[in-house]
Specification:
- The protein is α/β, with parallel strands linked by helices and 216 residues long.
- The chain has helices spanning 10-22, 35-41, 62-75, 92-100, 113-124, 132-143, 154-164, 169-176, 180-194, 199-208, and strands at 2-6, 28-32, 50-53, 82-87, 105-108, 129-130.
- 51% of the residues lie in helices and 12% in strands.
- The protein has a six-stranded parallel beta sheet with strand order 2-1-3-4-5-6, with helices on both faces.
- Helix 4 links the parallel strand 4 and strand 5 (105-108).
- Pfam families: GerE, Response_reg.
- InterPro entries: CheY-like_superfamily, NreC/VraR/RcsB-like_REC, Sig_transdc_resp-reg_C-effctor, Sig_transdc_resp-reg_receiver, Tscrpt_reg_LuxR_C, WalR-like, WH-like_DNA-bd_sf.
Length: 216
């Protein structure tokens, strides 16, 4: 089975490829560091039957990414393929959204390679699969969906939306018609309120807590 692994972290993609090949899970595996590189570089005559993809990458992401895969395969007249999401985003709303928009399986990046292989086998049998840890999160959220309220000013919300959409601070400043210094100040305030230190953690936190919809 031809397989494609799409992840902007090259080391992760190559590690998964090595493990799957050693377990004879796939006959041929291609790795791509973005969805666009996949669309541009995959051989139309040798389309993968399995796609293992991150959900949050530069460029297209979220629901739009899942839709893009569907449109790509539709244009190539290939109906049978399995889409497995392997992501750091683990909130129950995103998991349900991904399954609703075409994912056959959804696993956390904390999952073992053994569970990824199990998910692949389940998908090939025509079943849906959600990672063990994610299933626990979904059940816990169903039983008790408590949410902490974080207050952001209107300007901070605007900055957050732009950053989560892939803009740099400089680009956000240009779009908001503000100085880079001012936007950087808003950005630092948001990071402090959310108690995070990296932009990637900020985006994950914003998605988990409903400040940013990944399909927006």
């Amino acid at each position: 089975m031809v397989t494609a692994i799409i992840d902007d972290h090259k080391m992760i993609a190559e590690a998964i490829k090595s493990c799957l090949l050693s377990q004879n899970v796939a006959s041929e595996i291609f790795t791509f560091n973005s969805a666009q590189l996949f669309f541009d570089g995959i051989d139309p005559g040798n389309l993968p039957g399995i796609i293992i993809t991150d959900l949050l990458m530069p460029g297209t992401n979220g629901v739009e990414l899942l839709k893009a895969y569907q449109e790509f395969f539709k244009s190539k007249n290939k109906k049978e393929y399995k889409l497995i999401v392997l992501s750091t985003i683990s909130d129950h709303q995103t998991v349900k959204m991904a399954m609703r928009y075409g994912a056959d399986a959804y696993l956390s990046k904390e999952s073992t390679i053994e569970e990824l292989i199990e998910a692949i086998h389940e998908c090939m049998r025509g079943n849906k699969y959600i990672g063990t840890k994610l299933r626990t999160n979904i059940i816990n959220n169903f039983i008790s969906d408590e949410q902490i309220v974080y207050h952001l000013s209107p300007r901070e919300k605007d900055v957050l939306q732009l950053i989560c959409s892939g803009n740099t601070i400089k680009e956000a400043a240009y779009k908001m018609n503000l100085s880079v210094h001012t936007v950087k100040s808003y950005y630092k305030n948001i990071m402090k309120k959310f108690n995070v230190n990296r932009t990637s953690d900020l985006i994950i936190f914003a998605v988990k807590n409903g400040f940013y919809q990944i399909n927006s």
